[in-house]
Amino acid sequence: MNFIKLPKIELHCHLDGSVRAETIMDIARKEGIPLPFLDKEGLQKELVAPLECDSLVEYLKRFALPNLVMQSKESLRRITFELFEDAARENVKYLEVRFGPLLHILKGLDVEEVIESVIEGMREAESRYEIKGNIILSCLRSMSVESAFEVVKKGKKFLGKGVVAIDLCAAEEEGFCERFVEPIALAKEYGYRVTIHAGETGIGKNVLDAIELLGAERIGHGVFITECAEAYRKVKEKQVVLEMCPTSNVQTKAVQQYAEHPIYQFHQDGIKVTISTDNRTVSDTTMSKEFHLVTNEFHLSEEDCRQIYENSVEASFADQGTKEWCLAQYERRT
C-alpha cells in the first residue's frame, strides 16, 4: 500500500507542535529572538521528543521553543500555511488544526488577531493546494477557568468562518472536567463543536466525565478507556470517536510500545477510531508514517483503511459539502 498516495483525514494536530525547524530559525533571525541552538541539528534535538520520553509532562516541554516564534501575525500565518502545505504534499485532504490562542499574545497581539492570522494561513493553503481545513481553539487546563471563557467568547465571531470547535488540552489531572463545565457549556450554546483531550495519561474516568459533563463529541487520545469499564461502554454505546495518535502515545508512555497500542482492538470491537499525528515536529512524524506503523503492526487491510477514512470524514467538524468532497477524494484515488 502506498501511504503517501493514500488519501487521509487528520483531526488531531497541534499547530505549535508542527513547526518546521528551518522556519523557527528564519523567524528568530528576522525578529531578533535568541535560540539555544543556531543550527538545524541542534534545534531538532530541542524540538523532537524521544520515544524514551518519561511522561506527557516531559513531552509537553518541547512546545516552549516553537511558541517563542509564534508571537506575530506574519509568523502565525506562515506557520499555519506551511503545516497545511506539508499535509497536502502527503495527500491529506482535510485537516483540523488546534492551538491555544492565549499562548500567542505575549508580544501584544490580541486573541482576535491571533485567530484571524491562523485562519488566513489556512485559507492561503486551501487556495494553493487540494486540501481543506478548519480550526479548533484549545483552552489550556493549566490556565484558569476565566481564560477558557475568554477564548470561547473571543473566538465566537469566527465560528463558521474557519473556527469550528473548542478543546481542552495540556497536562491531564484527574477530575479536570468539573472545573470547565461552565465555559464549555457556553461554547456549546454559541455553536462550537466539542473535542476534549482525555484518557491520555492513565485516567480513564476523565473520558467518561468529558462525555457526561462536557458533552464531548470526540476524545483526543482516549487510550485509557481500557482502565474504566464505564468509559469504554459509553464511548462504544454513544459512538464517540477517538482521535488516536500512536507515535505520540508511545512517547508520552500512554503505551510502552506500538504493539501495546489499543487502536486495533478498539477498531475490531466497533469503537470508531481515527489516526492523527498529534504533533508532526515534536513526534517527528507524518500521517503517512502513522498509517504505515499501524498497518505494519496490526496488519490493517485496505478495508480497514477505508473504514478509518470514512470514520474520520464522518467525525470531522466540516460542513456536509466538505464531507462529500472528502469522500469523493477516496473514491477517485489511483
UniProtKB/TrEMBL annotation:
Q: Name one GO biological process term.
A: adenosine catabolic process
Gene Ontology cellular-component terms for this entry are:
cytosol
CDD domains (alphabetical): ADA
Name any cofactors this protein relies on. Zn(2+)
User: Which residues are annotated as active site?
Assistant: 200
Q: How is the cofactor bound?
A: Binds 1 zinc ion per subunit.
Molecular-function annotations in GO: adenosine deaminase activity; zinc ion binding
Keywords per UniProt: Hydrolase, Metal-binding, Nucleotide metabolism, Zinc
Q: Which Pfam families match?
A: A_deaminase (PF00962)
> Does this entry carry the keyword Transmembrane helix?
no
Q: Enzyme class, one word?
A: hydrolase
What are its E.C. numbers? Answer: 3.5.4.4
> What residues correspond to the site Important for catalytic activity?
221
UniProt keyword annotation of Transmembrane present = no
Q: Which Gene3D superfamilies match?
A: Metal-dependent hydrolases
Q: Which reaction does it catalyse?
A: adenosine + H2O + H(+) = inosine + NH4(+); 2'-deoxyadenosine + H2O + H(+) = 2'-deoxyinosine + NH4(+)
InterPro entries attached here? A_deaminase (IPR028893), A_deaminase_dom (IPR001365), Ado/ade_deaminase (IPR006330), Metal_Hydrolase (IPR032466)
Q: Which residues bind substrate?
A: 14, 16
Which residues are Zn(2+)-binding? 12, 14, 197, 278
Task: Please state every residue range assigned to the domain named Adenosine deaminase.
Answer: 7-324
Q: What does this protein do?
A: Catalyzes the hydrolytic deamination of adenosine and 2-deoxyadenosine.
Family, according to the entry, reads as follows: Belongs to the metallo-dependent hydrolases superfamily. Adenosine and AMP deaminases family. Adenosine deaminase subfamily.
This protein's name = Adenosine deaminase
Give the organism the record lists.
Ectobacillus ponti
What lineage is on file? Bacteria, Bacillati, Bacillota, Bacilli, Bacillales
* Name of the gene this protein is made from: add
